[in-house]
Amino acid sequence: MKFSVTQENYTMNLEVFVIGKDLFVTITGGDTPHIGTVTTLTKKTDIQTIRYPSHDGRFHKDDVLAVRVAKIIQSDLPGSCTITAGVHVNHISRKQIAVSSQMAKKLGEDLKNWLQETDFDAPEPIYYSDSENPQ
């Protein structure tokens, strides 16, 4: 499933891939999409983020977008969720920075609505008990 929003002359995309009951989400856009951060969460665990260094040694700040989406969808997650984020707009303006939060909020709300309407009926894994071993 893919969602997009355009404001102030750039587009931000959110794409979700379902893996069993788990979600892999990408947030990309602008002139140079990339993977700047990786954010992980479940319904019951804290949101955690790894930020990658950018070309100049500073760390990417795309987690601001990912965490915004994560907080919106967390209560509706069917399993684990990994969000990669990387939006780069060349010579970004203050207006473009200001609307990025609103854009991420819209994408998060779109994803939340989709999660609430989607059936995640994947088979549950079967494990050996403590008294069993593989044959």
Low-confidence stretches: none
CATH topological fold name: Ribosomal Protein S5, domain 2
Portion in beta strands? 25-35%
Mind telling me which CATH architecture this is? 2-Layer Sandwich
What does this structure look like?
The chain is α+β, with helices and mostly antiparallel strands and 135 residues long. It has a single domain, classed as 2-Layer Sandwich (Ribosomal Protein S5, domain 2). 26% of the residues lie in helices and 31% in strands. It has a 6-stranded mixed sheet with strand order 1-2-3-6-4-5. Helix 1 runs parallel beside helix 2. The protein is elongated and about 60 Å long. The model has no long low-confidence stretch (mean pLDDT 96).
Which helices and strands appear, and what pairs or packs with what?
Blueprint: E1 2-7, E2 10-19, E3 22-30, E4 37-41, E5 48-51, H1 63-73, E6 81-88, H2 94-117
Helix pairs in contact: 1-2
Brief digest:
It contains two helices and six strands. Helices cover 26% and strands 31% of the residues.
Relevant terms:
6 strands; alpha+beta; 2 helices; LpdD_chaperone-like; Prenylated flavin chaperone LpdD-like domain-containing protein; six-stranded mixed beta sheet; Ribosomal Protein S5, domain 2; 135 residues
